[in-house]
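Thread: Newbie trying to understand structure tokens

Hi all, I'm a second-year student working on a class project, and my supervisor (Dr. K.) asked me to get a predicted structure for one chain before our next meeting. I've only ever worked with sequences, so writing a 3D structure as a token string is new to me. If someone could post the tokens and maybe explain what I'm looking at, I'd be very grateful. Here's the chain:
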Amino acid sequence: MLSDVGAKAIRLRIADLFVMVQVGPFEVDLVPKPSWGKKVSTILGGRKWRNIRKRELDRVRNRCEICGQEGEPRELICHELWEYDDANHVQRLRGYNVVCRGCNLIYHLGYAASNELANEAIEHFSKLTGLGFREARELLNSKYRELIQIHKERSKHDWKIDVSLESAGR
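---
Reply by user tm_fold:
Sure, no problem. This is what the structure looks like when written as tokens:
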């Protein structure tokens, strides 16, 4: 069962210009290769990132925004949410989701698969959606194939990284 915060996250949609793949309660994307390593913590620095992370954990009272699991701050991940302007090759920070390990594995399916954590991700997704393990695996595999196609196209370009959300007085 999804938390109220998770249910609210499901209702959030972004403009069609910013293609993402809806996977159950997750809006998932794959960061283009030229942008790998260009995350908020490296762009703004560790001190600023720690302040952002604390702010976001406080905002959700140390609960996963997708499944509602409570956790110690060290157990929760502050996941960056990006939107992509494919016409102008701008990757823009649009916010964060605080997530538990299981939900984070779903956001990072490629990582989960390459580190023998795919079954853990599928089991968590199955629990969230009420799908059986096999159906959950098939859905995740099909959505991941969609993501790979988007990722391949986006990886052909260099991207301008826009973190102005954080300099806009947040």
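A couple of things are worth pointing out once you decode it. Residues 133-154 form the longest helix (22 residues). The CA atoms of residues 35 and 159 lie 7 Å apart. Feel free to ask follow-ups in this thread.
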